[in-house]
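Following up on my earlier thread - several people asked me to post the actual chain instead of describing it. Fair enough. Here it is, all 69 residues.
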Amino acid sequence: MAASQTIDIDCKSYEIDSLSDEAKSQLGNIRAVDAELKRLDRQKAIAQTARNAYARALQEELAKVEPKQ
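Reply from S.P.:
Thanks for posting it. Predicted structure:
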């Protein structure tokens, strides 16, 4: 017999099967938002890496130009 799945919220453990349909829906919403936040974190890391590369390229180009005093 398979053990029922549980979730821990506020230091309390709940069997998912015992939750109301509304609670299960809200749990699904939280999981979806958590997944989206992780996706956005990855996108932010990609964008930051690109920005750093652009900044390095700009520095290389600026090294070729005499700054105006």
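The beta strands are 6-9, 12-15. That should answer part of your original question.
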